Amino acid sequence: MIMRAHIVVSGLVQGVGFRWFAARIAQSMGLAGFARNIGSGNVEIEAEGERGLVEEFIAQVKVGPRSADVQDLHITWLQPLRERVRFEIR
């Protein structure tokens, strides 16, 4: 089943390569979506694809790159858009 997750990652996640980390993982899994820094100091991610792959992606995002310190994830499951074909950094 195709699903889309909206994820807000908080902690030390800006300026540490977090968006590139997320994009590399998502692209290797064939997920569509984006990662971007938001004004609160958090990173916003949308990931769309097979639910099992999105869940695996979330598990890896929860750990983050070594340079990051992930404090929390806020996840909202949404209906897929099926508009995006790749994962991009914004």
List the helices and strands and how they pair.
Elements: E1 2-12, H1 18-29, E2 32-37, E3 43-50, H2 51-63, E4 69-78, E5 87-89
Parallel strand pairs: 2-5
Antiparallel strand pairs: 1-3, 1-4, 2-3
Helix pairs in contact: 1-2
Structure write-up:
By secondary structure, the protein is an alpha+beta fold. The protein has a single domain (2-68), classed as 2-Layer Sandwich (Alpha-Beta Plaits). 28% of the residues lie in helices and 42% in strands. It is built from 2 helices and 5 strands. The protein has helices spanning 18-29, 51-63; strands at 2-12, 32-37, 43-50, 69-78, 87-89. Strands 4-1-3-2-5 form a 5-stranded mixed sheet, with helices on one face. A hairpin with a 5-residue loop joins strand 2 (32-37) and strand 3. Helix 1 (18-29) packs antiparallel against helix 2 (51-63). It is globular, with a radius of gyration of 12 Å. The model has no long low-confidence stretch (mean pLDDT 96).
